[in-house]
Design a protein that fits this description.
With 479 residues, this protein is of the alpha+beta class. The protein folds into 2 domains: 206 residues, Probable inorganic polyphosphate/atp-NAD kinase, domain 1 (Rossmann fold, 3-Layer(aba) Sandwich), CATH 3.40.50; 251 residues, Tumour Suppressor Smad4 (Sandwich). The chain is built from 14 helices and 16 strands. Strands 7, 8, 9, 10, 11, 12, 13, 14, 15 and 16 form a 10-stranded antiparallel beta sheet that branches. Strands 4-3-5-6 form a 4-stranded parallel beta sheet, sandwiched between helices. Helix 3 runs parallel beside helix 7 and helix 4 runs parallel beside helix 5. The longest helix is centred in the first third of the chain and has 18 residues. The chain is globular and about 80 Å long. The two termini are 30 Å apart. InterPro entries: ATP-NAD_kinase_N, CERK_C, CERK_PH, Diacylglycerol_kinase_cat_dom, Lipid_Phosphate_FormReg, NAD/diacylglycerol_kinase_sf.
């Protein structure tokens, strides 16, 4: 009888494809591609039975999304977001039977504001952002704020127990850096991200809440940077017309300027957990460290009280000094230019952040520290660098104890002359204040209180997979 066949939609990684087709991967092993697998049988009725059974099995998988809300930032990166989605992502969603409601944003924070109040989220299985890290931040803030308000939680209170978000977030990379996508998938490839969404992967992530006194400022999932990285972002914002190249220029300029800042850092160490910031092991798919530490961390972090008399008896630790950089990395912060990232052993979902303190040093020593971000050397093995895995930390710049930093800068003669020195660094005076770089956004205050919320959101991802997982399989076609 005539043979019948049916072609099935099958997302696989390039490593598996290389094994199947007996040739080298065409790209990095973390990229996924679609492959067509054709099954042939002698009877048409049997073929239809196979197809029906496979479709029933797919429909029974609850983790696979069926309805998605998609936000596209047409101005991200090289303004290719809309084109990337229409040419590379939308056809895959249609082929996989995923319905979408697509919204092209009209201004900054358009998606955030709509998610806070206007979007009907109950009919969607997830929210997808097409853009860079800034677009992801909009989605993140909108969903978290909406969840807290619906649950009757005050986001402005740093001691409140926040309600985790249940709606998963997908990232289609189309920005300048795409750090978050790179650190959670292993590559900045739109097709790979789309396939992770289609198969319904889920990766929990920690979120840091940032407060000034009793005022909420922002949420962070990757980097909080004061000093060098804050100065780079502030300077690069004046050069947006240059595109991604502005970060390189601002980085060189801030390195040559070599400003340091005085202040006090207080932190609550993450005691009794598995792993340290200087481990050789990395956070990977199915991370045992994240699973283990989630069960150990208490539900509520201790409140920070300024009481120097009892400081020696408290779990809190306090450091004072002059710093070139104060960084808090909640993930490795890896990107194509820095494959290791700021903290290579940081974990996505262990309820901690790695607090990296770079004290005042020579320009040459600071260059050594920066170059280690791109090498295999231990970037923390320097006398002027220290790193702590913490659950919460506070920072207060010198001369700023209670009021708004901006108010302090504007009142009094000393502040006026300090502003002149900041504008003209050739005078040799160190500027009094830097700015906080919070996931690529500048914070309005420098005195902040940061708390880590363990596994607070879910991404359509599975973490970075190790290639050996595929190499150990005796029959890759079994996937």
């Amino acid at each position: 009888s005539a043979e019948s066949s049916e072609t099935l939609f099958c997302p696989i990684s390039d490593t598996v494809a290389a094994e199947i087709f007996k040739k080298k991967p065409r790209s990095r092993h973390h990229r996924w591609r679609c492959a067509e697998v054709t099954f042939t049988c002698p009877e048409e009725a049997l073929c239809q039975h196979w197809v029906s059974s496979i479709r029933e099995q797919l429909a029974a998988i609850a983790s696979r999304p069926k309805h998605l809300l998609v936000y596209i930032n047409p101005y991200s990166g090289k303004r290719q977001g809309k084109r990337i989605y229409e040419r590379k992502v939308a056809p895959l969603f249609a082929q996989a039977g995923v319905s979408t409601h697509v919204i092209v944003t009209e201004r900054a924070n358009y998606a955030r504001d709509q998610l806070k109040t206007g979007a009907e989220l109950q009919k969607f299985d997830g929210v997808v952002c097409v853009g860079g890290d800034g677009m992801f931040s909009e989605i993140l803030h909108g969903l978290i704020w909406r969840t807290q308000i619906d649950g009757g939680v005050d986001p402005n209170c740093p001691e409140e127990e926040l309600i985790p978000c249940t709606l998963r977030i997908g990232i289609i990379p189309a920005g300048s850096t795409d750090c978050i996508c790179f650190a959670t998938v292993g590559t900045n490839d739109p097709v790979t991200s789309a396939l992770h969404i289609i198969v319904g992967d889920s990766q929990p992530m920690d979120v840091c809440s940032v407060h000034h006194n009793n005022t909420f400022l922002q949420y962070s999932v990757s980097l909080l940077g004061y000093g060098f990285y804050g100065d780079v972002l502030t300077d690069s914002e004046r050069k947006r017309w240059m595109g991604p190249a502005r970060y390189d220029l601002s980085g060189v300029k801030m390195f040559l300027t070599h400003h340091y800042y005085e202040g006090t850092v207080s932190y609550l160490p993450a005691k009794g957990i598995m792993g340290t910031p200087r481990d050789a092991a990395r956070c990977r798919s199915g991370c045992v460290v994240c699973q283990h530490n989630r069960q150990l961390l208490p539900e509520k972090a201790e409140r920070y009280e300024v009481d120097e008399a009892s400081e020696s008896d408290s779990e809190w630790r306090t450091l004072r000094g002059k710093f070139l950089a104060i960084n808090a990395a909640s993930m490795s912060c890896a990107c194509p230019r820095s494959p290791k990232g700021l903290s290579p052993a940081a974990h996505l979902a262990d309820g901690t952040t790695d607090l990296i303190l770079v004290r005042k040093c020579s320009r040459f020593d600071f260059l050594r520290h920066l170059l280690r971000h791109t090498s295999k050397d231990d970037q923390f093995d320097l006398a002027f660098v220290e790193v702590h895995r913490v659950r919460r930390f506070c920072f207060t710049p010198r001369h700023c104890q209670s009021d708004s930093d901006l108010d302090l800068r504007e009142n009094g003669k000393h502040q006026i002359f300090s502003q002149i020195c900041r504008d003209h660094p050739a005078c040799g005076c160190a500027p009094a204040y830097s700015s906080w770089n919070c996931d690529g956004e500048i914070l309005n205050h420098t005195a902040i209180d940061v708390r880590v919320h363990c596994q607070f959101i879910q991404l359509f991802a599975r973490g970075i997979e190790e290639p050996k997982v595929f190499e150990e399989l005796p029959n890759p076609c079994a996937i």
